[in-house]
Amino acid sequence: MEQFSSRSDDISYEFCCLKLTESKGSQLWDVISLPTRMDMCIRAGYYDMAYSLTNYGAQLQTHGLTGNPILKKVADKLIAARYQLLDELFNRFAGPIELAKSIQIVNNIRKIPYLSSTQLHLAILQYRDAYLEKQLIDVRSQSDFILKIVEIYRDYMYDTMVLYLAVFPENEITRRDSSTDPRWDIWQTAGPSAVLTEWVIHNLNTMFSYIKNMGHETHIDSGVLIRKLMSFALSFGRMGMDFRPLITSVLEEIIAEKFSLRVRTAAKELTQNKLIRINDKIPDPSFSFVNQSSAQPSAPSVLAYWDDLCVYGNSLIDALNDLRSGLSPVQINAVVNALENSLKMVVCWLCEMEKRVEKIFVERAVKLLAVYFIPHLNSCLLTLYPYEKCCRPFYQIIYSLEQYVN
């Protein structure tokens, strides 16, 4: 009877607890609804309140209240929601964001003890790069894609650097983890500027890779591209990241490669001809082809005797004229070497044509090429790269005008 009475009292107590729990005014319902409220706070942007809720779940575990299966489930969901909260906070950096808002978001992220200082720096920059990719995808199909890329990188990198330096100042104090064994703590934590510098280098290399990999059929005004890049680099020079020397080396390589491809293609088109027919006799030259004026020299009328050579010459002149917007004396060797290789292809082709066409036609072709075409091409080069601008200021004592022309 005593056991029955004791057990009856326990059942009565549990029944009272159940009735109290089922009532609408029970606080247990508020506890059970916390995970739902957590999701609502995250979606609505109430990050401080969301952090308070997930911190409450941790307190339930700390005080040993998770022995109850219902409370344990609530606490587990609140703590697991920290990952969702982190994703939501970081996703704010994958789009346009105000500086004051970004500082507030970083402060909220720092409250969650899942990331080290370096991981936080890297994560923010990675999410900013995701925002960059979205912008690049939007302009990828435009004709001036390369010029748009430079503008996007300039604005994006500037905004990100300002944000980063405001959120992670250089004099930021890095606290040691008290749980780390000092005998193993031998690696020094990288400062904010070290991470930022590597990020800048990575993004600049990526931008230049886009420029290098643009199709040769893509027509871009090299002068406009150089001006945009130089303005970009100069603005970053105020932050100690002037990359103008890198621009010069990269663009010179791109311009030289594109020019070489164009003159090589022109030579291939000429050498694909199976016949050479020049019916008129080639006269001897009666004037000098050396052009010392700044005006574009006119082509000798005798070149019209060979139509295929005129087409080839026009292709070379067009390629040379496209260099005008971004002229530099550094280009001279690359341009001359490309023209020499193109002319070598034509000369080798003429040597092979001796076996296929009449000898008189080959002789006339060689005379047109050597006596009229090459001197005219040399005059165009002297107009494009005049001695007074490209040689005299640098090698006045070593090279004379005659040596430069030769």
TrEMBL record:
<keyword id="KW-0653">Protein transport</keyword>
<keyword id="KW-0813">Transport</keyword>
<dbReference type="InterPro" id="IPR007255">
    <property type="entry name" value="COG8"/>
</dbReference>
<keyword id="KW-0472">Membrane</keyword>
<dbReference type="Pfam" id="PF04124">
    <property type="entry name" value="Dor1"/>
</dbReference>
<dbReference type="InterPro" id="IPR016159">
    <property type="entry name" value="Cullin_repeat-like_dom_sf"/>
</dbReference>
<comment type="similarity">
    <text>Belongs to the COG8 family.</text>
</comment>
<dbReference type="GO" id="GO:0017119">
    <property type="term" value="C:Golgi transport complex"/>
</dbReference>
<keyword id="KW-0333">Golgi apparatus</keyword>
<dbReference type="GO" id="GO:0015031">
    <property type="term" value="P:protein transport"/>
</dbReference>
<protein>
    <recommendedName>
        <fullName>Conserved oligomeric Golgi complex subunit 8</fullName>
    </recommendedName>
</protein>
<dbReference type="GO" id="GO:0000139">
    <property type="term" value="C:Golgi membrane"/>
</dbReference>
<dbReference type="GO" id="GO:0006891">
    <property type="term" value="P:intra-Golgi vesicle-mediated transport"/>
</dbReference>
